[in-house]
Design a protein that fits this description.
1 helix, 11 strands, mainly beta, 147 residues, five-stranded antiparallel beta sheet, single chain, 10% helix
Length: 147
């Protein structure tokens, strides 16, 4: 699935799905895969077919636990610690909040225990304003300015 297809699917999902609590979106995903989008539409998980053996409820919550130099909100994805059979795609639509941030200085990070670590294969799609990376487990994710 290319980035444009993912973005279109994400926008469609935001319009079609509902949510039970403000700042939280929950969706059942099984072995067939699927897409889960945060309430604000800025954070998306694209889970490929076969990444899960059984269906689970995935919840995305915006949280206040921000790393230094955060470029937007942090999103905790529950159930934290869920491990996938194959990498999932994490997409984060960024806004530098008026700051001049070069694309090469934007990094997608994940919370590991008490520290934040960069996702190694992140890529910035400057025209779309999206940062994409793969992950093997659920945790808390955020964008940071990395200088």
């Amino acid at each position: 699935m290319n980035l444009t297809s993912i973005a279109t699917a994400c926008l469609t999902l935001v319009v079609v799905t509902g949510c039970d609590h403000f700042g939280e979106r929950e969706r059942g995903i099984g072995p067939e895969g699927g897409v889960v989008v945060s309430d604000d539409g800025r954070f998306t998980l694209d889970i490929p077919e076969g990444a899960l053996d059984d269906a689970i409820e995935i919840t995305i919550r915006e949280v206040d636990d921000l790393p230094e130099a955060a470029l937007g909100p942090a999103y905790r994805v529950l159930p934290v610690g869920t491990v996938f059979n194959s990498p999932i795609r994490v997409l984060y639509q960024y806004d530098a909040h008026g700051r001049a941030v070069a694309p090469e200085d934007i990094t997608l990070v994940v919370k590991r225990s008490d520290e934040w670590a960069a996702l190694a294969d992140h890529h910035v799609y400057e025209d779309e304003g999206i940062v994409s990376a793969s992950a093997l487990y659920l945790s808390t994710f955020c964008l940071v300015e990395d200088r």
